[in-house]
Amino acid sequence: MKTPKNPNPEAVAATPATAAQNGAGVPRNGPDRSVPRKAVKERQSAIVEMREGHLACRACGVSVPPPHKGVQTFHTLGRELSGMAAAVTLAQRGAEVRMTWCATCAEFPALAGRWLDEFPVVQRRIGSRSVAVDVVASGVAGLALLGLDPPKVREARHVWLLVEHLARPGGASMFVSEFVPLTRENLRENHASRSPWAHVDRERRDDLGRAVAQMHRARLRPRTEVPEPEGRGCLLCGVGSVTVRTSTPVREANAWRALSANSRTLGGTASSTVHGHTCPACALAIENAGSIGAEAIQRAVVKHLGVRTLQRLEVIGLEGWGARFRPSPNAQPWTHLGDLKALADRMTNGER
Questions:
Q1: So what's the pLDDT on residue 191?
Q2: What is the C-alpha separation between 241 and 224, in angstroms, rounded?
Q3: Which residue did the predictor score with more confidence, 231 or 346?
Q4: Mean of pLDDT values over 45-55
Q5: ∠59-62-65 over CA atoms, to 5°?
């Protein structure tokens, strides 16, 4: 009987001796992750021992020969053990594992970076550039695991849907998740996946499949544009129409909220009563602030720009669209404020 050819020739099979773990570990918090013995054997058969100098791809898990690019060191809390032997041992804390990207998976963070450059509001809402790249790349990795190409991205919403539906299950399927926060039992730092994504079990693949279906349903959900009832703009952001995700009469009727306010509360200099409507985003900002005024306007601007600002920072010069007469609504929210990128930078840097 011939021995099956190893699809990953840069690795050699792990032996029971190299797979054995010594000492106590740290039990994982949360639900019991114990699996049937057959599943354990299947998982172990998907793991191979790498040759010296090789690193595992942090996504698909295959062994990558040197030279390496994009090497990152991950810190684990300890090792999973099943049964009565699982106990906290401080000596096993602080373990490190180094991983890289294979040539195929290196495209995930590169694509994520291009999307973030095209739609910077996504990065501003997530925060750190590195975190944003990791989150988006995890979603792309989830699609690759299932043999699917990255989605066509035409707007920031498409990136958000990818993050919302696939970042978590995609990240949980990456090889690095076998080590962080806790290293799985019988897994060592010199182990890799026998073939791309071989370490991912059927349950996680099924979860990803359902998540992909949900993402596509959300992308295809009917949308309709609902104009401001009087043909003007939102009293705060000035936008002339809003998108309603489901084209139902109830949603359309409730898309705009009537509002009467003094122009001074909108940031104007004159004192006169203004009648109009607010879009859903600005109406929510007013509700969260408790009343119409500078705080509500700043909340709405911060939300739209996707910036993180100091909690008590009061930005001077913010003015609602309805604070003065304007002949036509804004094509995009808050464009009457001028350079929104410069404003976002001011807020991020804590400048008033």
A1: 95
A2: 10
A3: 231
A4: 92
A5: 115
Report how far residue 348's alpha carbon sits from residue 309's, in angstroms, rounded to the nearest whole number: 5
Nearest-angstrom CA–CA distance, 243 and 106: 36
- Could you tell me the pLDDT band of residue 44, with boundaries at 50, 70 and 90? low
C-alpha torsion sign, points 133, 139, 145, 147: negative
SS3 333: coil
Per-residue pLDDT band at 312 (split at 50, 70, 90): low
Q: Is the pLDDT of residue 66 over 60?
A: yes
Whose CA is closest to 136, among 111, 117, 105, 155?
Answer: 111
241: phi then psi, degrees, rounded to nearest 5? -155, 160
Nearest Cα neighbor of 199 from 216, 219, 227, 179 is 179
The CA distance from 95 to 182, in Å, is 10
CA distance 275 to 262: 9
> What's the Cα-to-Cα distance from 106 to each of 59, 64, 130, 197, 199, rounded to whole Å?
9, 12, 15, 15, 19
- CA–CA separation, 300 and 222 (whole Å): 26
Q: Are the CB atoms for 197 and 146 separated by under 8 Å?
A: no
Distances (CA, A) of 8 to 2, 12, 40, 58, 195: 17, 8, 21, 16, 6
Q: What is the dihedral of CA 163, 212, 142, 29, to 10 degrees?
A: 70
Alpha helices by DSSP H, 14-81: 16-19, 37-45
Locate 240 and state its tokens. Answer: 């002339």
Contact by Cβ (8 Å): 62, 192? yes
Q: 240-274, pLDDT tens digit by residue?
A: 999 876 545 555 567 899 999 999 999 988 889 99
Helix (H, G, I), strand (E, B) or coil at 49: strand
- DSSP letters of 139-208? HHHHHHHTT-PPPP--SHHHHHHHHHHHHHHHHHHSGGGGTSSEEPTT--TTEEESSTTTT--HHHHHHH
